[in-house]
Amino acid sequence: MEDTKVLLEELLNKLTAKPVYKTIHRIIEGKAKSRGEELKGLYSLAVHICIELEKGNNKFVPLLNDVQGKINKLRADAVTSTEPAAGKTIFGWHTSIDLAGCNENVLSAIKLNEWCAGLVKQLGMKTYGECITPYFGAESEITKGYSLVQLIETSLISGHFSDHYRSAHIDIFSCKPYEGKTALLYTFEFFGGRIENYSNIVRYCN
């Protein structure tokens, strides 16, 4: 298997006349003007890789995986502000995560319980009672999948998982501060797939 750096150089040599050529070189040199430019450049690069794959150049698959990983990392770093608004009282912190194209862990109650226990540990929380993972929607291929509820001493972790779409839809609410990005990265590592949505917000009580 060719090194991704070699594959990137080969692909860029084909793109010298394209705007993405200069953008990717700025990214490589750490001189991207903004996170937005970096994301735009990586998405554009991913499109050109897909064009190569359509031509049958499957050797570029590792490069596509590498670029996808960089995109996911940038999206994970794009944390919504959690600074309190002036004159407001914080009641808690709320993280929402949507993953698509997940691995088989979303199909297993045992694995879902394992993920939840690990998340609680990662965030320094304490459980309140047992984690429950009922299986819903079995009458339809599209709706069936597990749901998960775990009370914690400072509030709640919940999740809904689709067998059909191999997707995970997770919410974490806690009156105790925690790092939302830690939850995202741990969850993404456990279930794989791609990050479709991520938000980390403050909840107010006045």
What labels describe this entry?
206 residues, alpha+beta, S-adenosylmethionine decarboxylase, 40% helix
The CATH topology of the largest domain turns out to be S-adenosylmethionine decarboxylase
Fraction in beta strands: 15-25%
- For the record, what CATH class of the largest domain applies? Alpha Beta
Q: How is the main sheet built?
A: 6 strands, antiparallel
Spatial strand arrangement across the major sheet = 2-3-4-5-1-6
> What's the architecture of the largest domain in CATH terms?
4-Layer Sandwich
Question: How would you portray this structure in words?
Answer:
The model has no long low-confidence stretch (mean pLDDT 88). This protein is of the alpha+beta class and 206 residues long. A hairpin with a 4-residue loop joins strand 4 (155-162) and strand 5. It has helices spanning 4-13, 19-28, 35-54, 61-77, 109-122, 180-191; strands at 90-100, 135-136, 145-152, 155-162, 167-174, 194-204. The chain has a 6-stranded antiparallel sheet, covered by helices on one side. It is globular.
Q: Topology of this protein?
A:
Elements: H1 4-13, H2 19-28, H3 35-54, H4 61-77, E1 90-100, H5 109-122, E2 135-136, E3 145-152, E4 155-162, E5 167-174, H6 180-191, E6 194-204
Antiparallel strand pairs: 1-5, 1-6, 2-3, 3-4, 4-5
Helix pairs in contact: 2-3, 3-4, 5-6
